[in-house]
Amino acid sequence: MHYSRSANSLVRTNLSPWSVELTLGSGTYGVVECVRNVNTRQRLARKTIKLTSKQEEENELPATAVREIAVLKSIHHPNIILLSHVAFEPVYGGGCNHLCLYLEYLPTDLKRYLDALGPGERINPRLVKSYSYQLLSAIECLHRHRILHRDLKPPNILIDYEGHLKLADFGLARQCHMPERTLTHEVVTLWYRPPEVLLNAPTYG
């Protein structure tokens, strides 16, 4: 599924004012970087999404990008990552514009935090309770709006050094409708799939 670009919701620029400070991650979707505005010094996370040559030619966007933008524009919650703006920018030169999502920046994620723990080291129980509360609060907000994240895992749970937690990466999110539709089981990294998805339930959510 593909969607056309909307001039009303996306910003096109010929020159990016953002300077890359750090690469946070990369994958088949593209790359996520920590960037700073050279004029205002504001720091954000920039998710640059690769477009296929066909998408470029036909002026279309990937469905995952449209879903993520739609969810983040419709949901505002202290434990859900904030979308600052969306733009098409020639971030890598060559005259080719790339789809860029500018998001609230948090320095690390739950996976990196857990991987950094030493042998036998445990998370403070108060922090476990706080993280659990914040994560469940974000999920409750999504479910109240009938939205399934469908990719809950430690790398998509961002944290800072003050104990704040925010849920991110909504490329696989879907809104539930009545009557329920059959959704694909090819969601979520295998190790984090819930039982109903592993058992091929016709509906879930």
UniProtKB/TrEMBL annotation:
GO CC term (a single one): cyclin-dependent protein kinase holoenzyme complex
Assigned EC number: 2.7.11.22
Limits of the Protein kinase domain: 18-205
SMART domains: S_TKc (SM00220)
InterPro entries assigned: CDK (IPR050108), Kinase-like_dom_sf (IPR011009), Prot_kinase_dom (IPR000719), Protein_kinase_ATP_BS (IPR017441), Ser/Thr_kinase_AS (IPR008271)
GO process terms (BP): G1/S transition of mitotic cell cycle; regulation of G2/M transition of mitotic cell cycle; regulation of gene expression; signal transduction
Catalysed reaction equations from the record: L-seryl-[protein] + ATP = O-phospho-L-seryl-[protein] + ADP + H(+); L-threonyl-[protein] + ATP = O-phospho-L-threonyl-[protein] + ADP + H(+)
Protein name per Swiss-Prot or TrEMBL: cyclin-dependent kinase
Keywords carried by this UniProt record: ATP-binding, Kinase, Nucleotide-binding, Serine/threonine-protein kinase, Transferase
